[in-house]
Amino acid sequence: MNWRVYILAVASFVVGTVELIVGGILDVVADDLRVSIGAAGWLITMFSIVFAISAPILLTVTSKIERKTLYLWTLFIFFIGNVIASLSPNYSILMLSRILSASSGSLIIVLSITIASSIVKEEYRARAIGTIFMGISGSLVLGVPLGLVIGNHFGWRAPFILISLLTVVAMIGIYALMPKIEARPAIPLAKQLLTLKTPKIVSAQLTTMFMLTGHLTLYAYFTPFLKTALHLNASWVSFVYFVFGISAVMGGGVGGWIADKWGSVKSILAIIVLFAVAIFLLPSVTFSFYLFLAVMVIWSMLSWAITPAQQNYLIETAPESYEIQQSLNTSALHIGIALGSAIGGMVIEGYSVLYNAWVGGIFVLVSFLCAVYSITRPAAPSIVSEQTETKQAI
Length: 394
Known about the structure:
This protein is mainly alpha-helical. The protein has 16 helices and no strands. The chain starts with a helix and ends with a helix.
């Protein structure tokens, strides 16, 4: 596999860390800027919303720009966003900086995925995508504890200063080691989005969305679940999160390896089925901490293992619009995160956190049905072919 993929993975780690880095220091941010905890929480929510919306739009707007140049400029804008965050005098400026970081960060992540899949041989493509998602999953897992440790010791602005410095390091690495990559022939966004009218593709995107919805229905409220079901104290909760994080990072790489060996279709179906079994089992194995830990490791790994296979499946299904499909898949992932968090909250309010795993499992089963439906549909029509037929008819 091309070693430059690891450079892209490091850059993805830096970008992904920003999304949740304020999660552990919301109270500190709220006190300093004199806003409520709820208002401070919108710094995370707004980031996810902007991230989901921006990726496909920005990818299309910048479709004619050489990829290395685009990557460097986008990293620079991301750098500016985090510098502004570190210097923010009030809540409004900090929110503006988060919007700037989210929009530029979304493009960086999609560029990392598309570039990684284009610079390796086909037999290593899923593995390359999996490596990028190891960086992303690692950042999402480590973002909260990293922000917590640095923010509590040096103030809430310090994490953004660190991210700014790491962004400069990423820019130097991309500039020195990444070759120029010409942009693909541009296809208008309207024509690319027409692929979503194809059942095979839209159901594939829904597979990702419902999978993450099911996952976050429990994971977003994992701390109260651990305290309620296993009666763990703060130290043991931290230990469980550490194990979960290591497993999640490994899952991205394992998922890419499986997809390359088994093929995307078999991998997607197997991963979703095993994931559903794991999430349904979790509440039933809480009588034994070690058994619970074993099932949780499987659940954690599979939560990120599906993404490389899913991204590779989209490349195989819609090769001419794979960049927009990968960006839309990233958007679907973030929509699933937001939806799962909301549904999990409603379950806790109406019933108990002990039911979150089972409710989440139902959404995973819906994801499986979407995957089966997508796999059994005929291939999507070629955008280029449609364009040619239209011209001939005219």
